[in-house]
Amino acid sequence: MQDEAVADSSPINRTMLNNIAALEDDGDNDLITEIIGLYLEHTPKLLDMLTKGVEQKAAKDVCHAAHSLKSQSANLGAEKLAKICFELEKKGRAQSVDDVGALLRKLIAEYEAVKVALTSELEGRAA
What residues make up the domain containing 39? Predict the structure, then answer.
């Protein structure tokens, strides 16, 4: 039961990472390591685009960045983060980004939890 509670609180759905790992040949961790590395490298740029879009009330930029981050996050199993991105994407599409500051802060906080989990995953694979 304890393990289930820990698994439920994780910002990452391990099934998604395991599915990616299953694509690797001969137990080689290069694919998942590369995908996680690219995600961790590119996400701050998308967060910056989102932040600037919200500050400048640029709905198109908010929509675009939220959509990109949503897809990338979902592919790695960051389901809660992807849902928050979806909400921001909808607001951007509706040209309604005046009141999304709290949603953006929630997204950034969730990304920090995802980043910790993915960094831990990388460290575990390197060991």
Answer: 2-126
